[in-house]
Each structure stands twice: as structure tokens, then as C-alpha cells.
Amino acid sequence: MRSEPADATDPALETVRPGQPTPGRLGRVGPGADEGLADPTGAGRRQRHELWMRRALEIAVTGPSSSGPTSAGGPVTGDPADDVPVGAVLYGPDGAELATGRNERELTGDPTAHAEVLALRRAAERLGRWRLAGCTLVVSLEPCTMCAGAIVLARVSTVVFGAWEPKTGAAGSLWDVLRDRRLNHRPEVYGGVLGTEAAAVLRAFFR
Ligand SMILES: [Zn+2]
Fold it and tell me: What's the CA gap between 123 and 177, in Å, rounded?
């Protein structure tokens, strides 16, 4: 299956995989790849995505500064230092930071406490609605199946992720939940943004 992309006839749905950078598009995957014609180089967007990714990496390393150490005041059962450093930030349509999340699986003993899920929950709580259309989720690691599913359910418009995750990734590595044509919502996806820095944060943890 991997050697034969389902959308091989549609150049706009070309999948960018690790080790296969697309010159000038910085790992752009997903529908509407011709978007941004007024900005052919995508330089402004790339700068914005990299700026946002630096924020996500900061969250990955230090944890959310304002949202508190635990998920919705849940019980603390572990040490945050045991958690794989993954950070996520949700930005509103105007580019304002709505919420952040850091992986808290060990800290809270919650198997669903991934950075993306926490950021989505907090943003929805803040906005008072589950529908996050127009928002951009920035996360330091390629989302897993659970998080990709939650992102689709929340109608997030754009996903920007850092390091590729060949073992569990659901945004192009193992699965491509985010742009599965059988689903009624498909966000735009930018993968590998500051991928080297993002991978270094993880390598430092597992060392
Ligand atoms: Zn996840």
C-alpha cells in the first residue's frame, strides 16, 4: 500500500514523506496545494509556521505556563519529567494563541492526555464550542490516530507538525487520517516544520 498512494493521479494530494522533501513547499501535504498563489514562495506562511513551531517546542520542553500543570485539574499521579516532550498550540483564525497543551500521560495517568487533545479541549472550553473551524493546530510531533481523529472531529482547518513519527504517525507516516477522502473534513497539513529541532527535543529525552 505504501508504495502506491491512493491519490497518485491527483498531484495536489501528493504525500510528502520523511526523506522526500518537496523543494519550495516545505513538506506541504493535503488538499489545495495550489493555495497561496499570491505568495508563490510561501515565505510569509513559512515564517509564521516556524514561529508557531518554536512556541510548540517551548511548550514541549517547559510545559504550558498558563494552563496549569494538569489536565482540567485532574489528579497528579506521576512526574512530568517522565512524559515524552510533545507540545501543541492552537491558534485562532486571527493568529491569536487560544490554548496550549503538553503531553501529560504519565503526569495524569490518562492515556488520552496527548498534547493535541489537551489543546483542543482547552480551546473549545475557552470558545464555548467544539467546532474549531479556521483554527490552526501546531504540534511538535506528527499526530497519532487518536489526535488526528480529534483534529478532524473539531474541524480544525490547518495542522502544522514538526518531527515525523514513523512508528505511530497518522498524518502521512503509517496512516493519513487527516486527509482521508472518506471523511467529511480534511485539514490542510504542513509536515516537517522545524523538523530537525523538533526531532532533537525528542532525541534528548530518549537519550
Ligand atoms: Zn496523539
Answer: 22
CA of 22 to the centre of ligand 1 (A): 25
Binding site, by residue number, is: 114, 144, 147
> Does residue 35 contact residue 52 with C-beta atoms inside 8 Å?
no
Q: Please name the residue that has the C-alpha cell 537519550.
A: 207
Q: How many Å lie between the centroid of ligand 1 and the Cα of residue 4?
A: 26
Q: How far apart are the first and last CA of the chain?
A: 33
CA distance 69 to 146: 22
Domain 45-62+76-206 has CATH 1.20.1050.90: no
Over the stretch 115-136, which tens digit does the pLDDT of each residue have? 999 999 999 999 999 999 999 9
| Distance from the alpha carbon of residue 32 to the mean position of ligand 1, in angstroms | 25
Question: d(Cα 130, Cα 151) in Å, to the nearest integer?
Answer: 11
- What are the backbone angles phi and psi of residue 99, rounded to the nearest 5°? -165, 160
43-62 and 195-206 helices, crossing angle to 10°: 10
Binding-site annotation: residue ranges for Zn(2+): 114, 144, 147
| Cα(175) to centroid(ligand 1), Å | 13
Please state the pTM of the whole predicted model.
0.78
* pLDDT tens digit sequence for 63-99: 765 444 444 455 677 888 899 999 999 999 999 999 9
The catalytic residues are 116
